[in-house]
Design goal:
Blueprint: H1 2-52, H2 54-59, H3 67-94, H4 98-120, H5 129-149
Amino acid sequence: SSSSSSSSAVATATTKAEFRCLVEENYFLSRRAFVLLSLVSNCSEGAYYFLDQIQFFVKAKVLKKSDAIKTLRKTAAVAELVSYVADTILLVLDGGDGEKKYFSATQNVVDFLMALNDVRERETDLGDPRFLSALGIVSAAIGIRDKWLV
């Protein structure tokens, strides 16, 4: 009886130790994933902002419109898409306030759809100006809510 209770205690202790080890491994894996996604999100957002500024050089006629500028604009839109995807995944992984997370994720999806149209460069379906205008209003309303009302 005493040997069976001591073997049961050892089995439980081993299970608890294994459980702690698994929890620690998952914590470090999730922290690495979080750091990697943060890096992807921030770098792609920075690349988008940097590449998007080139359009002002074109408007100021410092640079001529060319295929290279068009390619850079498309690359900027792809970087913007990547940043929205990474940021949305981070929102899901991070937890936090449910309402704020919901509105931030919704704004990311709306902005993602608008950026997707920049990549597609079409005026049908997602590129319908009325649809894009509605998306812009939703994104702006959420931005106002986040900045001014909460």
